Amino acid sequence: MEWKNNKVVMIDQTKLPGELVFVEYSDYNDVAKAIKTLIVRGAPAIGVSGAFGLALAGLQSKAITRDELISDMEIAKKILFETRPTAVNLAWGLEQIMNVAKNGYSVNEIKTSIVEMAKKMAEDDIKINMTMGKNGSVLFDNNDTIMTHCNAGSLATVAYGTALGVIRATKESGKIIKVIATETRPVQQGSRLTAFELKHDGFDVSLIPDTAVGYSMANKLVNKVVVGADRVLRTGHVYNKIGTYQVALIAKQHGIPFYVAAPLSTFDMKSNPQDVIIEQRKGTEVTQIGDRKTAPDGINVINPAFDMTPPELISGIITEAGVAKPPFVESIQKLFEANK
Ligand code: MRU
Questions:
Q1: Is the Cβ–Cβ distance between 149 and 207 less than 8 Å?
Q2: 125 in active site
Q3: CA of 296 to the centre of ligand 1 (A)
Q4: How far is CA 40 from CA 11, 45, 80, 84, 231, in A?
Q5: SS3 letters for the chain?
Q6: How far apart are CA 261 and CA 312, in angstroms?
Q7: Selected catalytic residue, list 125, 144, 210, 230
Q8: Ligand 1 pocket: which of 125, 241, 244 to mutate (most atoms <8 Å of CB)?
């Protein structure tokens, strides 16, 4: 994803792996639609998309005064924020832009500074992912087979990835590794995006149906797990793609280390588990594969997009500031203090 000639350019992830299509937006409402319909998805990617969207809103505004511009941007911020409720990066990205805007004195100054800030956030995302990758790579050994769930790769960020960034850095450090990607029903981020991304980049990657996680672990086909996150609480509760909890539970049963890779912008240090809204998505994601019906008409569907993995199932949380180990309340707090 990139900011180019005052437009937002991104890959339409709904078209992968069949077609590589780039879309271009100059209206923040289109960016909001792209986030909602998963044209862009993945916590850090929607954080930066939100920031880009709000910067577009600032440029689009016909405001004459500074206060009118701020008020137009507040309206856009609400529209962008309401697209997806679980990943905390979206609120974080919007807040960063809004803070810069509020510090500006004139319309022109604000318009320039919000674009600069949005571009800087995109650049920082890549640097953070590379640092996180290095920090995490020491946890993985030569000849490891690493399982990952959903897509926490280049596509889910500006580039390099979080969980896949750790996998990339492990390979770059000279270790020979294999990867197992889960399919990640119902939207298939694992088969459509992770398998595509890793195969494209020359990794030894195998795809499994979500239902084969237990089989793979029981038969020693995998010895470590790393996933991304949409929100991490100060207690170490991790919200990530639906199915992550099952992967963590089965890993615990088989004594397989389960790691999470997430930038500090994914941490929500204020909320408790009961405050976090799990996005519920439309039933057709479950009753159809593409346009083909796979369930009876009128069936009731429960389709949560995320679940919560409790801290006791997690071996470590990899960030750009270091790796937090249990007990997480203390170790996460320390990472934030060290990063001040
Ligand atoms: O619904 P999605 O595809 O946006 O969900 C994405 C995930 O759950 C990812 O694992 C998470 O955002 C981390 S991406 C670096």
A1: no
A2: no
A3: 29
A4: 7, 7, 13, 11, 17
A5: CEEECCEEEEECHHHCCCCCCEEEECCHHHHHHHHHCCCCCCHHHHHHHHHHHHHHHHHHCCCCCHHHHHHHHHHHHHHHHCCCCCCHHHHHHHHHHHHHHHCCCCHHHHHHHHHHHHHHHHHHHHHHHHHHHHHHHCCCCCCCEEEECCCCCHHHCCCCCCHHHHHHHHHHCCCCCEEEEECCCCCCHHHHHHHHHHHHCCCEEEEECHHHHHHHHHCCCCCEEEECCCEEECCCCEEEECCHHHHHHHHHHCCCCEEEECCHHHEECCCCHHHCCCCECCCHHHHEECCEECCCCCCCCCCECEEEECHHHCCEEEECCEEECCCHHHHHHHHHHHCC
A6: 16
A7: 230
A8: 241
pLDDT in tens, 116-130: 999 999 999 999 999
Contacts of 203 (CB under 8 A, 6+ apart): 167, 171, 177, 178, 179
Closest atom of ligand 1 relative to the 227 alpha carbon: 10
Q: What is the pLDDT of residue 62?
A: 98
Phi, psi of 180 (to 5 degrees): -115, 125
Is ligand 1 within 6 A of the CB of residue 73? no
- pTM, 2 dp: 0.97
- Which ligand 1 atom lies nearest to the CA of residue 149? 10
Structure confidence by residue, pLDDT tens digits, 160-176: 999 999 999 999 999 99
The C-alpha atoms of residue 45 and residue 193 are separated, in whole angstroms, by 14
Query: Does residue 305's CB lie within 6 angstroms of at least one atom of ligand 1?
Result: yes
User: Does ligand 1 lie within 6 Å of residue 189's CB atom?
Assistant: yes
